[in-house]
Amino acid sequence: AQAFQEVFFELVDCDLRAGVLKAIFGCESKAADNPVGLQNEIRSYLMKSGKSCYVPESFVNLAQAKELIKELGGIACYPVLADGSSVRCEYEFPLDKFIDTLKAEKYEMVEFIPLRNSPEVLTEYVTALDRAGIAVVAGTEHNTLDLVPLVPTCVQGQPIPEKVAAIFQQGLEMLGSSSSPD
Predict the structure, then answer these.
(1) pLDDT 10s digits, 47-63
(2) What is the rounded distance in angstroms from the CA atom of residue 13 to the CA atom of residue 19?
(3) pTM of structure
(4) What is the enclosing helix (H) or strand (E) of 136?
C-alpha cells in the first residue's frame, strides 16, 4: 500500500488525484492528498478479501509458526482482541475457557493493543491472565505510518489503569530476562 501510494503521488498531479482515485476505488477518496490516509484506503478498497487486488495468502499451521518463532529466538505471543472488535472473538470468550485454551496451546505470553480496548475490559482480561501465570504485554500497533503515541492508552485516549500498567511492565521485564544473546 505504501509503495503504491508513493508511486501514485509521483505519477499523478495533485489536482487529478481525487478523480483518478474515484475511478480506481469506485467511490470518493477521503485522503487523496494524505499519504498515510491513502495507504489505509488502498488497503481497505483494494487489498482486503474480495477486493480487486486481494491475493490469497498461504499459511503455515500454528505448530509450525510457533516452532519457527522459537527457533528464531522469539516467544510465541497471542494477540488478544478482547473488546477491540465489535463482537467478541469466540476463541477469547468466555475468559476462563480462553485461559484454558492458551495454556493447552502452551502460550506463555499475550499482547494487547490497549488503544482498541476499554479500561474495564482490559483490566478484566489482563488481571485474569496474570493470575493464571501468563505474561501480558502491551503494544502500540506501529505497523503503519500513522503517528500514534509510543505510550499506549485505552480506547478514546483513556489512561491504562495503574494495576494493568504494572502487569504490562512485569511482562516486559519477563520478556527482557528471557532473551539471551547468541
Answers:
(1) 999 999 999 888 889 89
(2) 11
(3) 0.69
(4) strand 135-138
